[in-house]
Amino acid sequence: MEKAVKSQSGISSRLSVAPMMEWTDRHCRYFHRQITSQALLYTEMVTAEAIIHGPRERLLSFSAAEHPVALQLGGSDAANLRQAVLIANEYGYDEINLNVGCPSDRVQNGRFGACLMQEPETVRSCMEAMAEVATSPVTVKCRIGVDDMDDEKGLANFIETVSKAGVATFIIHARKAWLKGLSPKENREIPPLNYERVYRMKAERPDLTIILNGGVETVEAGLAHLDYVDGVMIGRAAYQNPACLSLVDAKIFGSATPPKTELEIAEAMRPYIEDELEKDTRLHHITRHMLGLFHGQPGARSYRRILSEQANQDGAGLEVFNKALNAINHVATDQPQKSKELQT
To answer: Which of 92, 217, 243, 331 could form a disulfide with 6 if both were Cys (CB 3.0 to 4.6 A apart)?
Structure first.
């Protein structure tokens, strides 16, 4: 895939789709971009070591149509992160983000992710190294706390220390992380949400851009948070019911362009699917991100079943995609199908 030309227009983080491991790959981001033209999209987390020593083109390349798009890095070695940013600069990302929020054992063993909240000076050094060479803004994604570091003072000190590196944007997941005893899934659900702490951080640091993440399930809920913070990030809700993103451009960014219907979104993916199939991409690698497109609609169960059972078969092509869409088409009325309000 050709390296993308960097977007020349300014980007807004009023609404973004969270970086999610094994979910927000380039196919997912291209799909989401057919639904919203303005939400900021994030890559999966990629470690600095993988970029330096691994298959760079596969890890970093993306379609220019995905802009605005941010790269999320994982790591704690300032020199490695600096080198990774130098490499990533060639691909034209609109933002480069450091993961200081993931609590998984694998991430902890590499001494990065949420455990770095206990080492604000290390994060500061990393961000200074990244900012020195980055051609786009560098940002941090963190938690409100970790383990026993679970008070306002700890978060405020972390933000104060890291902001001295020139970081102006913090994406804060409004749950603390337990590094031991909870799985990554449980860390997304069990620690209670504390939106007020994030709101207070913004009130105390009006000079910074504060983005709220965690438990935001509807675009309307995101709008409510925007009374207190600069932006909101939607994660699993956007993946499991992607049509919700059709509300973003109008409700969050004030666009007057009518949203696409779910069938129009699916059809917009057809040229991309055709192109990727010619490059020997398996159909499943694309359509697995589209399973929730018709969430709650007649025919949705058959649509999901066909894609789940047949798209991963050897040689599966557009005939499987067409068959899945026919499960929707045969129950559609003569009236154009309207994008539904987000229901998750």
So the answer is: 92
